[in-house]
Amino acid sequence: MADLGIKRMEGIVFDVHNLLRSEGFYAESFDFALIARSTAALERTAGERTEVYEAGDIRVIVTSPMRPRSRSGRYLKRHPDGISSLIFEVEDLETTAALLAERNATFVDAPRWIDGPQGGRYGWFDITTPFGEALFRFCQRDGFEDPLPGVPRLESPGGGQNRMGFESFDHVTSNFLTLEPMVLWCKTVLGFEQYWDIAFHTDDVAPSHDHGSGLKSIVLWDPKSGAKFANNEPMRPHFEDSQIYTFVMDNHGPGIQHVAFTVADIIGTVRTLRDRGVVFMPTPPSYYQMLPSRLEAMGVVLEEDIEELRELEILVDGKPGGSYLLQIFLKEASGLYEDEEAGPFFFELIQRKGDRGFGEGNFRALFESIEREQVKRR
Length: 378
Description:
Elements: E1 6-15, H1 19-29, E2 33-37, H2 40-46, E3 48-55, E4 58-65, H3 71-78, E5 82-90, H4 93-102, E6 112-115, E7 121-128, E8 135-142, E9 153-159, E10 166-175, H5 180-188, E11 193-201, E12 214-221, E13 228-234, H6 243-250, E14 255-263, H7 266-275, H8 285-298, H9 306-312, E15 315-318, E16 324-329, H10 333-337, E17 346-353, H11 360-376
Helix pairs in contact: 8-11
């Protein structure tokens, strides 16, 4: 199947109730640069305000409604804060559109073009997806430098300077009550291929199945661009106790649970973020008690100090042969801000030391460690 000509995942569009809070998070906590802001003319027309933050190859477009019936206003009427669109830059917009039309994609609009104020052209169109109301946008840039039409670059960027070494998007993870429609859509409409999968229940912790949680996850990817999408569904028993089920309920439907950013030095990044008050999901001490034996079994020799990883609660996973990755998950936004409107979304930080996987050992080890801690407290 012909590929869509995707060059990269260019950005995420995040709809929020509180734009000022987002500015504090991206510019102050994450040290992203504020590179663009919507014009007054666009705000009058669209009824929403947009700011664009950037670090490395990561672009986050934050939009907040000024009118209830704006696009972001309608989204936030049905959902908490969350990602409403993913943007992909493509080589040739018309070719991408023709391929998607042949594969019965559902178009929101026809491809259209706009001339840039300083020259160049920008072309784009949106299609619907199987997860909630999130859209995929495909765009082509012919010398068009602004992030979006009507959202020009600032002459003097504000915010931070990416002193924590954020690099790029690693993957996007979405949660469903049933993931098969998303998997089929990725394969038959987008032409993506299966990259990785895992399914487990923590039955070695609870052989009687009287407690526990589990999931099934299938990762699809576009080999040309490297864009990856992990898709999760809950597993029985205790289907409704799964964190995947809880996300779908809290999000008022399926949607994007988290986005992973790669960083150059996860230890330095996490230490600085903790100093700035950013809160991460806790890791039980038993995880690190098991870690040396896990690493030995995989033949992984860490360059980092395990005690430092324990202190910062960074997770480790690897592959036989020595490659490994380091990862950590921020606390979900509603807990971070103590506000249900902030939603169940969270970010992941990941540093790869040769391992291109998804932390299979961490899926199981972390779930089992949490369950062992729960058994101890009974």
